[in-house]
Automatic annotation (TrEMBL):
It comes from Pseudonocardia alaniniphila. It comes from the Bacteria. The lineage of its organism: Bacteria, Bacillati, Actinomycetota, Actinomycetes, Pseudonocardiales. Keywords: Flavoprotein, FMN, Oxidoreductase. The keyword NADP does not apply. This is FMN reductase.
Length: 205
């Protein structure tokens, strides 16, 4: 069985968080869909709220602390990405944006990506298409066609809205799994393969 890694970025700010709950369900559905395609999956979950102070420091200084650097590397090295944000003022929240602001600008080029969001009302659902999808288009990620939004009414047990959410999760996870399974595993870049020439280091350029 081949193996792939999925990075899950959850930008919920409360504990427990509906954003993290949706992220976990998307990850589980993706793992299941990849298993059906003969692919074993490792999931790396990044809770952005845990790196809030580090993100501010990184924005101000330009240097990430080791914990944040490890989270950024997990996203860069992953074969696929699931990115989930709560919706504030009809857009992603600040922590979500800050995380992708400090991520290397080339880390997501061509990376299969599933986007999702939560909100207090279904009226926020268009934020995925007019805010989140354009962000990842700018970063040149390969975003799957189906995005997933969940409002409080989507979490009811056994009703139609809950079933609709289940269907959207399954469809989006299947789309992500299809792309990830069809590609060779991502290889982490080796910084020692192309070291900076010593003369360039001496010149400070």
């Amino acid at each position: 069985m081949t193996r792939r890694t999925i990075a899950v970025v959850s930008a919920g700010i409360s504990v427990p968080s509906s954003t993290r709950l949706l992220a976990d369900r998307l990850a589980a559905a993706t793992v299941s869909a990849l298993r059906e395609r003969g692919v074993d999956t490792e999931v790396d979950v990044i809770e952005v709220r845990d790196h809030g102070h580090e993100l501010v420091d990184n924005v101000l200084t330009g240097f990430p602390r080791p914990e944040l650097q490890a989270a950024l590397k997990a996203v860069a090295d992953a074969d696929g990405l699931i990115a989930v944000t709560p919706t504030f003022s009809a857009s992603y929240n600040g922590l979500f944006k800050m995380f992708f602001d400090v991520l290397d600008s080339e880390s997501l080029i061509g990376k299969p990506t599933l986007i999702a969001a939560t909100g207090g009302t279904g009226r926020h659902s268009l934020a995925l298409e007019h805010a989140v999808r354009p962000l990842f288009a700018f970063l040149r990620a390969m975003v799957v066609p189906t995005s997933v939004f969940s409002a409080p009414e989507d979490w009811g047990a056994g009703d139609r809205t809950a079933q609709s959410l289940d269907q959207r999760i399954a469809r989006a996870a299947g789309e992500l799994a299809e792309i990830v399974a069809a590609r060779p595993a991502q290889k982490a870049a080796d910084p020692f393969l192309e070291p900076t020439p010593f003369e360039q280091l001496l010149n400070g350029s």
